[in-house]
Amino acid sequence: MQDRILDALRRGANDEALDLARQAAADAPQDADVQRLLALALRATGDQPAALAALDAALALAPDDAELHFQRAGMLLGARDVEAALAALSQTVALDPNQFGAYVMQAQLAIGRGDLDEAERQHKLAARVAPDHPWTTMVEGTLASRRGEHDRALALLSAAAERAPDDLQILNALAFAYLARGHLAFAEQSFRRVLESTGQVQLRGLLARIMLEQGRPAEAADLITELLADPAQATPAWQTIAGELEIHAGRPERALPLLQAAFEAMPWSPRTTDALVRLWSADDAVDTARETLDRGLVTAPDADHLWVARLAFEAFGGEGAGAVVERWNAARPDHVPALQARLTHHAATGDLDAAEAASRVITALQPGHAVANEFQFNRLLERDPDAAIAFAEDLLPTAHDAARTMLRRWIGLAQDAAGRYTDAVATWASVSVEATEGTGHAPEPTAPPREWPPRPERDDAQPPAVFLYGGPGANADRIGAVLQRMIPAFRSDRFARGVSDAFQDTTAPARFAAGEFTAEQVASGWRAQLPARGIADGAIVDWLPWWDNAWVAVFRAQLPSARLLIALRDPRDMLVDWLAFGTLLTLRIEDIDRAAQWLARHLGQLADLVERDLVPHAIVHTDAPAADPATLATELGRALEIADYPAPPLEALGPDRFPMGHWRQYIQAMPAAIGALTPVAVRLGYPRD
């Protein structure tokens, strides 16, 4: 429905868009994004007051959504009376002010729905009428910001603000440009000016989020608490935001009543439920959680997130979980998420026939369902690899591109299981080349310096920092899954949304080695991001997407207490895993032999680091961790300096994909690649043969 609304707006079929948006809003009145689209449609049909009301309704549901605030800023802030705004323009615009205002509004509408080309066209029309008007510059700057040209956007919007310092619309645009550029303090200052001038309640949520990202959760919580003093503003959405901020501020006793009140009024909100689940889990308040969630399910039995939360307070695979799963299926027969929960539960209890039966019901309802199809494929893989190949091949014709890539990898796995190793290599090589052709080449390792910086003494005054890294095929994700469960300071956010520092950038090591920036800049840039990542004291286990020995100089000069945790397995098994499953950080593969040669050079750096002990480090072997969780726990405990580190649960660790030494099956299928990796495998402690 949302795509149809946007399509109608792009075609200029504004009445059609409005009808669709009203229908969507009636069907999902609690969906903030639907209210946003309704606002766009209302504005496109000229009903400015109703458009603002719809955006206000969206912001009541999601008060700290920056995108909603951005679109609200595009409407004539502080000038709900459009005619009065245009009359004011006539004092400075010699030509028809209505024409100019229409161009500006059409440009803002186009930006709001993401049609930047149309916004550019409307901007050019506005520039013909009033090229020097601050609003013309404002639209140009806003367009630049949306296109990621942040420095140009700030220059344009700052110039517009200098010429019209009291124009709230320009000030809003400038504030959002600061926010997009990451200049949080300037964004906060600008938004506060708008708040002081307009008294906009909605801005408090966005301001609170900006304060939180600057590491000031208590101040952010207090900002919302002031708002809640007015009973008219104490809505479930604001109570949820306040509760979340109180959790961040370490004040759970203040968070709990806020979130409970919000939940009782709005149990269908996943955000409120998630915050409460965190509190209940921290306090081990299992009975309270069960009672509250069961009460919410009476009111909102169609809310899947409530059933998922309810399952979180039962032992995985236990009788209690089974009872909740059956209640869910009774409440929502033939509902795919409920059936998937049944599949998962039966698989966990070892009742694979019942799980397979559930998977078949799912695929009858939704033929392309990935989880159900994967379960059926894996059962065939165990019983009859040739049948598994046929099953995956039958799914290919109707699969979308991403699913086709996955299915072809499955075919390679089934060929491997059938002992058809040459066929498996051909399948994996083909899908790897095709899936990575749009990415850049893997960076070459930097050359070692003539002399490394001196070794520092460990500085116990610095917060402890551990960096996890594993190369392609090293199964570092399995170590990450374990640490995610067991170490609160573990962060995997670099793989979800990225982090704006040098450790995130695969090109940064070469630039650092070339002298483009200093070790102090690398370390300070990393530290500056920690508060926004929820790390207040600097103690972190940080999962890196990339490692290069250029960072040795940074560790020695700026991070003397930091350690590197290396996930490592036999390099030849790493290659097989890389081809079969791909990597979280996509690296281009042009052919297998060149990929193996590059991997050998990359791992050669790690061998140098280990042999020369270039930085404090520890190795966690990932050759077959599920086969020996106790050894893995010992290695993790040594790496993290935690005595008696517990063995990880197998559901967190996951099964071993291939047995240790599986590479030997591929000596005939890819001899040059195996040969290229054997020397570095020996250096890293693995047998030659």
UniProtKB/TrEMBL annotation:
According to the UniProt entry, which residue ranges have a biased composition of type Basic and acidic residues? 452-461
Instruction: Extract the ranges annotated as region (Disordered).
Output: 435-462
Q: Which UniProt keywords apply?
A: Repeat, TPR repeat
Note the superkingdom of the native organism.
Bacteria
Annotated signal sequence is none
InterPro entries named in the record: CellSynth/LPSAsmb/PSIAsmb, TPR-like_helical_dom_sf, TPR_rpt
What Pfam families does the annotation carry?
Answer: TPR_16, TPR_19
Q: What is this protein called?
A: Tetratricopeptide repeat protein
Q: Which organism is it from?
A: Luteimonas deserti
